[in-house]
């Protein structure tokens, strides 16, 4: 019994450490950003990273990276890591994911003695790095969209002052905060490497995946082909985007109550479980005995998770 408890405690500590690794290491890093900005590929994706420079996994980085390259798994993850501005390589991403899955598998099995529970825990752990990656990309995309109206007006002012578009982009790089400055700096880098302005802007749209940015780039491309007053076109687009951002903000305010209601409904079962456990410890402990009783809390957790996802989808308004 003591051995099992010790092993379980060690696994818990290991899983907590891995979770901390995901949230601390998978953070945007200025040094990594500079490395990504300094290179590019013809497809506009992130360059193939040097796996030997990884901070996680040590000597495992190279073989894991080679294996992922053979399986064709590195390119997609490298592109997503570049979109999210994550300071890790694809091999490090897979090492973190494998470590989380192994830790969750062992933890679930040691605590319940049911292998299926361990597998379910490993499946949940598998989704954590991907969710973190998606969240970081979404946040970066949102920040870029909020900066876009001011960015466009800066381009308009530069064009009206008599500067060319490329020079106006250089002004954006020097004056705008991240992530706008980083993305437009990469556009300048690609132009210096021989890409056309059209290609460099298309690559930026692929990285950011913003409809508003796509609208701006389309206007620039059309003006480049047929002519016209680009500053007036961009000013109109800036006002349109600013209005869209304002309406989105109003929608966020109008759905605040529903969002927090969802959070409260998700948190309520856990709060009640803690209160009941304090008042009458034996009442809750029966559900956590090895064997079939463990399926009761597992089923409850699955239904809570599904309900939370459903509520999030119901209050999400896309336009």
CATH topology tier name of the domain at 141-253: Receptor-associated Protein
What is the average per-residue confidence, as pLDDT, rounded to a whole number? 79
**Portion in helices:** over 70%
Gap between N and C termini: 57 Å
**Biggest sheet overview:** none
- How big a fraction of the residues is strand? under 5%
Q: Determine the structural class based on helices, strands and strand pairing.
A: mainly alpha
Q: What top-tier CATH class of the domain at 141-253 fits best? A: Mainly Alpha
String of helices and strands: HHHHHHHHHHHHHH
Low-confidence stretches: 22-26, 28-52
C-alpha-based Rg, rounded? 25 Å
What count of helical segments does DSSP give?
14
SS elements, strand count = 0
The general outline is elongated
From the 3D coordinates, which CATH architecture of the domain at 141-253 would you assign? Up-down Bundle
Report on the architecture of this protein:
There is one protein chain. It contains 14 helices and no strands. It is an all-alpha fold and 319 residues long.
Compact overview of the structure:
With 319 residues, the protein is mainly α.
What labels would you give this structure?
78% helix, mainly alpha, 14 helices, Receptor-associated Protein
Sequence-ordered SSE layout with sheet pairings:
Elements: H1 2-25, H2 30-38, H3 61-70, H4 74-84, H5 90-112, H6 115-160, H7 165-175, H8 180-192, H9 197-208, H10 211-226, H11 230-254, H12 256-279, H13 281-285, H14 295-315
Helix pairs in contact: 1-5, 2-8, 3-5, 4-6, 5-6, 6-7, 6-11, 7-8, 8-9, 9-10, 10-11, 12-14
């Amino acid at each position: 019994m003591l051995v099992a408890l010790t092993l379980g405690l060690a696994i818990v500590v290991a899983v907590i450490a891995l979770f901390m690794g995901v949230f601390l290491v998978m953070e945007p890093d200025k040094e990594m950003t500079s490395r990504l900005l300094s290179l590019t590929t013809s497809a506009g994706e992130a360059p193939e990273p040097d796996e030997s420079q990884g901070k996680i996994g040590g000597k495992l980085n190279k073989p894991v990276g080679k294996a992922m390259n053979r399986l064709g798994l590195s390119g997609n993850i490298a592109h997503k890591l570049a979109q999210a501005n994550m300071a890790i390589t694809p091999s490090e991403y897979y090492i973190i994911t494998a470590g989380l899955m192994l830790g969750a598998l062992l933890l679930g099995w040691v605590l319940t003695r049911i292998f299926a529970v361990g597998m379910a825990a490993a499946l949940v752990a598998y989704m954590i790095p991907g969710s973190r990656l998606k969240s970081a990309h979404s946040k970066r995309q949102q920040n870029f969209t909020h900066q876009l109206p001011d960015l466009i007006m800066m381009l308009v002012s530069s064009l009206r002052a008599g500067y060319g578009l490329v020079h106006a982009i250089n002004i954006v790089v020097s004056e705008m905060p991240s992530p706008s400055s980083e993305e437009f700096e990469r556009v300048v880098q690609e132009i210096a490497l021989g890409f056309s302005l059209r290609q460099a802007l298309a690559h930026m749209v692929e990285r950011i995946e913003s409809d508003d940015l796509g609208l701006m780039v389309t206007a620039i491309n059309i003006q480049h082909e047929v002519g016209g007053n680009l500053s007036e076109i961009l000013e109109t687009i800036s006002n349109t985007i600013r209005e869209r951002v304002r309406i989105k903000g109003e929608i966020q305010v109008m759905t605040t109550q529903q969002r927090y209601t969802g959070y409260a409904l998700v948190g309520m079962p856990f709060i009640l479980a803690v209160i009941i456990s304090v008042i009458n410890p034996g009442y809750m402990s029966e559900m956590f005995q090895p064997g079939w009783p463990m399926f009761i809390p597992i089923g409850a957790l699955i239904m809570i998770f599904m309900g939370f996802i459903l509520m999030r989808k119901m209050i999400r308004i896309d336009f």
